[in-house]
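Slide 14.
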Amino acid sequence: MADGDGSIKLVIKHNDADPSVTYEVNAIKISVCDEDWVADEASDLFDMSDALVAGMSQVDFAEIDGNSVSGTATFVRQLSAFSGEVETATGTFEASCGEERVS
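Slide 15: predicted structure.
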């Protein structure tokens, strides 16, 4: 965020990456002020909340093209996983990185 009150973490693996080697899945976390939205099918939230079920937090589709990535994801508002009614939202993402980050 421009005012320093937010962050984004984006992990999108190449199709040939082996999850047993990388120990990661495609995931996105967005933090704005006190709100955290998570799209991560391997999130610890699933172990901590009985209300969260498969499909409520995941990267649905991702495509890497050179040094850019785009796709869609289903996000869960992190605190809602513990408040009774789970809030989800579907969104799109697009990001590019410099050549030194492409590997």
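Speaker note: The longest helix spans residues 19-22.
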